[in-house]
């Protein structure tokens, strides 16, 4: 019983220490680390160096991966540029395994003493040093846990029962690889490797099987990362898929070499690490390090093909494609006319999409499934945000003049487009479903088709290369309050009366129709396409009939 409790305590220290170390090192890295990662993607070699450094510093490959995923989501780096960071961060995490594989009991006690003094002086509450002190405490607890586990497992390894079990297990060479993969799928792969090293030091596991466990733990860590990123979609998920491919690549190289050495006696991996050191635990650490280096080198050589596979397995989503600018480049400060032209073309893309918002209300007009309204709204506002930032940067660098006036016009028009996205989404949500009342269905169709025709014609008029007719555009977007008043009277006085919920929904839809018409006119005003009318106030919401 004493041995079992000591063994469980050692494992508990390993788990607690791993948690403290990774969580606090991730917090200690902070925003500055994100800036370093973003700047590192300029060069593959610099990215590789930052990957090794980030793995050694944060001691969590998943944390590094999700930091890069966050930068990819923000558009700060591309997936292909971030791949070397993920590739090489695994090599950096080997530092933790190296520390626990050598006998550093005195260093462990020194770390505990230093952390205790820091806690006594309350440095752990400091904003500057708190996370670092807690991370060091996590490392110390981890090393204490390895020492306890090794001592507790020594009598187990020497027992006849364990020797009989291991003798049966040795008849199937790959059991260590399978066990390492399964365990690392549900707990951190490095933690599995550390426990394997501790059991190897205690004589419970042979060096061969410990090496296989380490190889399997690496594969399992890739699967775990893929599972953790299962909620991600499109481009954001590509790095999780890449980790699985990276780990599979390392296993495809090392596992045949280990098998060749075991079954044919050809000196390969074990012979290489045995020539470096006779210490079994250190040999296992070298195998882990060799796995990372071999996988990273192979992935670096196959960067292009691997990215193509990743892109095929997790292609960008429709929303990502719609959110990505097609015409915006680094603003040429010397040529504000070119800047205005780029922004204008990008805004036309948004304008052409506005009729698609009504796709869900007009399913019979689509051969396939229309793009969801929520996707159009989010992607449109994201693209409008890109245009806003582009124009803001250009205006800050352009001397005042006629060119600047054009940029301000486009900026104002862009804000109107954002509001149009919200109002169209509200119109689609407000419109009741068909099939509840024949009279209501006729009104729903008339409102939907009328708004679609308005959006379509205005988009065509403003998007064409040919000069548009300002008078026609002014007539298209003219005030429709009288017409909407007649529609509302028809809704209120329908005989037989419409159901209350449908009547209120249609009333709200007419309000939104009027606002959308006004915003289209406002958009044309902002671009200088038509002259401003006398009434420039937003249409007020109409009172709901009793």
UniProtKB/TrEMBL annotation:
Coiled-coil residue spans: none
Record keywords: Cell membrane, Membrane, Transmembrane, Transmembrane helix
Species this protein is from: Azospirillum oleiclasticum
Segments crossing the lipid bilayer: 6-23, 44-60, 66-90, 97-121, 127-151, 172-198, 210-227, 239-258, 289-310
Topology of the protein relative to the lipid bilayer: Multi-pass membrane protein
NCBIfam families: Na_Pi_symport
Protein's cellular compartments: Cell membrane
UniProt entry tagged with the keyword Ribosomal protein: no
Pfam families, alphabetized: Na_Pi_cotrans (PF02690)
The name this protein goes by in its record: Na/Pi cotransporter family protein
Taxonomic superkingdom: Bacteria
């Amino acid at each position: 019983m004493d041995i079992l409790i000591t063994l469980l305590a050692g494992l508990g220290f390993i788990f607690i220490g791993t948690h403290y170390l990774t969580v606090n090192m991730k917090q200690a890295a902070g925003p500055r680390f994100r800036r370093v990662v973003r700047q590192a993607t300029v060069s593959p070699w610099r990215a590789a160096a930052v990957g090794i450094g980030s793995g050694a510093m944060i001691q969590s490959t998943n944390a590094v991966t999700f930091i890069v995923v966050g930068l990819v989501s923000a558009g700060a780096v591309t997936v292909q540029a971030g791949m070397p960071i993920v590739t090489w961060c695994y090599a950096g995490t080997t530092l933790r395994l190296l520390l626990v594989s050598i006998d550093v009991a005195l260093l462990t006690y020194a770390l505990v003493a230093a952390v205790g003094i820091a806690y006594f002086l309350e440095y752990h509450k400091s904003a500057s040093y708190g996370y670092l002190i807690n991370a060091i405490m996590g490392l110390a607890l981890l090393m204490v846990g390895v020492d306890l586990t090794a001592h507790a497992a020594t009598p187990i390894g020497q027992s006849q029962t364990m020797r009989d079990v291991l003798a049966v297990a040795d008849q199937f060479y790959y059991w260590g690889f399978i066990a390492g993969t399964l365990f690392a799928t549900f707990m951190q792969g490095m933690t599995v490797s550390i426990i394997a090293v501790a059991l190897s030091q205690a004589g419970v596991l042979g060096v061969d099987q410990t090496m296989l466990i380490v190889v399997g733990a690496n594969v399992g860590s890739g699967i775990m990362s893929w599972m953790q990123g299962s909620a991600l979609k499109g481009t954001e998920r590509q790095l999780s898929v890449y980790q699985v491919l990276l780990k599979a690549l390392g296993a495809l190289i090392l596992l045949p070499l280990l098998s060749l050495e075991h079954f044919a006696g050809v000196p390969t991996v074990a012979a290489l690490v045995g020539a470096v050191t006779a210490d079994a635990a250190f040999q296992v650490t070298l195998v882990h390090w060799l796995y990372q280096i071999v996988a990273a080198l192979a992935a670096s050589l196959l960067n292009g093909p691997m990215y193509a596979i990743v892109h095929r397995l997790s292609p960008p989503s429709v929303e990502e494609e719609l959110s990505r600018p097609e015409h915006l480049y680094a603003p040429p400060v010397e040529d504000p006319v070119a800047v205005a032209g780029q922004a204008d073309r990008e805004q036309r893309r948004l304008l052409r999409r506005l009729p698609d918002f009504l796709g869900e209300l007009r399913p019979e007009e689509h051969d396939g499934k229309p793009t969801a309204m929520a996707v159009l709204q989010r992607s449109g506002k994201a693209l409008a945000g890109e245009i806003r930032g582009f124009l803001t940067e250009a205006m800050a660098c352009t001397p005042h003049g006629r060119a600047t006036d054009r940029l301000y016009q486009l900026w104002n028009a862009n804000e109107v487009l954002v509001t149009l996205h919200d109002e169209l989404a509200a119109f689609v949500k407000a419109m009741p479903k068909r099939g509840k009342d024949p009279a209501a269905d006729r009104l729903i169709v008339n409102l939907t088709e009328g708004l679609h025709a308005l959006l379509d014609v205005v988009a065509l008029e403003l998007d064409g290369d040919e000069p548009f007719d300002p008078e026609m555009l002014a007539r298209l977007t003219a005030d429709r309050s009288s017409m909407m008043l007649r529609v509302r009277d028809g809704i209120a006085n329908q005989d037989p009366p419409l159901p209350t919920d449908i009547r209120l929904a249609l009333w709200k839809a007419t309000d939104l129709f009027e606002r959308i018409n006004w915003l289209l006119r406002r958009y044309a005003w902002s671009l200088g396409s038509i002259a401003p009318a006398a009434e420039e106030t937003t249409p007020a919401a109409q009172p709901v009939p009793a």
